[in-house]
Design a protein that fits this description.
This protein has helices at about 30-45, 45-60, 80-90, 95-105, 115-160, 160-175, 180-220, 220-235, 240-260, 265-280, 285-300, 305-340, 345-360, 365-380; strands spanning about 5-10, 10-15, 20, 65-70, 75-80, 390-395, 400, 405-410, 410, 420-425, 430-435, 440, 445-450, 450-455. It is of the alpha+beta class.
Length: about 450
Amino acid sequence: MPDSHPRSRGGALILGAALVLIARFAGADPWYEHYSKAEDALEDREWTVAVEEINEALEKKGDSGARVRSYGMKVTPYFPYLKLGIAYYHLGQLEAAIQAFETEARLGAIAESESASEELERYRGLAQEAQATAAADELEKIRQIVAQSLSDAGDLEARGLLDEAMAALDPALAVAPEEPDAVAAMNRLRERLAERERGQEDDRRAASLVEDGTVLLREGQYSEAASRFRQALSLKPSEEIQDLLDQAQDGLRADLEADPQFDDRLVAIADGLNEVQELESAGQLAAALDRLQSILVLEPTNQQARSIQSRLLQARKAEEAERARLAAIAQLLAEAESQFETGSAEKALAAANRVLALDPGNEAALEHVALAYGMISRKLLGTVAKGNLPPAVRFVDLRQESEDGTLAEIVSTSEFRLNGVIIDESPVEVVFSRGDGTVLDSTLDVQPLGEYYIT
């Protein structure tokens, strides 16, 4: 890197910039000491130590070189991604190893060293061969998991154990998320579960309405009681509820006939219908249903009243069902979060699956499912954690060697241009600053290149 402090020499201006990648703060040792420790660790088969030391070196120097000045006049070959790939290969992290080898090859400096190039190709071949073998073994294991999972789920579904059947399908979808039979089975189970939930909610709602209506009936509030029983009947027809409705209507009829202000049945019906329509327009559906009961007692065959009642009952049913659905979704999402916090991916997944039965596109539930499937998949397949591959930095080096052996780029104006590329699996955030920490403006361009991004 050029000197990060401006200085003057021979009438020319020497400028520099420090490149700071988003990474943990590097220690005090220079890059070549970490690299030397990494080589020693590789020699001693201490693979994890080698990874740590190479990452330390890369935080200080991200570009490879066949002859890199370390200290004084000493030069050394510096191929950190090759060494990182070797360490990851021995740790069994084959994907990270292959990516490290590909990165070293892309940086290009290794082509200047025949021995290092041969080592790269040898280890890359070993890693690719091991990866192919591991992939074949994993495919067979996945096939067995899917077959067993589908069989277990089918048996449980046939017995009506829908929650248990979904849980039995989870291993298949965790290791093979796109497997057609498993996806179709889960969709079918979620639909059946949603239908069952709707039926159970109708039963709960009907029971609550009957309970409320019974209290109102005892208190002589016959119109309100009749309204509750009507709603209950629309959810769960039964002779018991019909008998209660008949009692409420008899009481309401007696009250109407005993009312000294009740003179004209037709006028009462007309006035009542106008009031019901006003309440419905105002969105007061429950009050509209309550008011409608006296009209149906006076004229049970009134078509307008029956039509309004049918509409109100449907609207109330939909309104209550949606309220119950949203409440259930909120409760289940909270349960999923809680189960993740305790480390139970399976229980969190069960709650998320129930959410998706009620709301198939729920984003939070889909995220929970993806996270849980990842955890279950790693458990079933024994997938090793992916290694960390630091961004590779390659500068266009325009520095010149001075008499004292230091390198500097000499420019004749106050402008300075630092050119280079950073190779990583995702776009990299880059910050340029002076030696005093002042952040400098910079222009970056990010382009995808196969599985990599070039910044």
